[in-house]
Fold this protein.
Amino acid sequence: MGDCAKRMKIVVVGSGDIGGYVIDELKKIGDLVIASRSSKEFPVDISEKKSIEGLFKRVGLCDHIVCTAGKTAIAPFKEATDEQFQNSIASKMMGQMNLVRVGMRHLNKGGSITLTTGGFSHFLFPNVIIPAFVNAALERFVVNVAFEMKNHFRINAVSPDLLKDSADRYGTKGFEAFPIVMGEQVGKAYRNAIESKVTGSVIRVEGR
């Protein structure tokens, strides 16, 4: 990429397993503002809309926003608690939706927003009812926002299967048959979402 691309200002929200690979890939093409709950320089909790608003007051205008933050609970449907549902919705679903609602006002012309969903909305597996419906809701959100806002900014979602790093750390008990993806492969999908002209797409990163 040329010097112009290197001057892009990219806000990356989330610095976990996926976030780390996204950061490694995107720093090749732009100057990054890295925000997370644990960041001292750019702290943000996406489950709180005021926290997102505070972040962008500090950040100002940017060219692209990428979110890899947000957690969902894994539990059998019959045993899942109200708290698990509510926390998952507040964190991964409404958190990312609010990031779009706030962040779109801080995008330069031609900017984009990329959210994160996951393979649980594409496969039938036990115990994943919460991430499955949260991911599916986000994917429909992306499609519909892109339709309404196509002349204003681009929006997409990256939907990776189970990250190898996560599988190595937490084990795969109950998910032995679930496809595994490499982190570098996932990072490149986010870069593609930024560099391409696509909008309203769910970019699947499929494993083996």
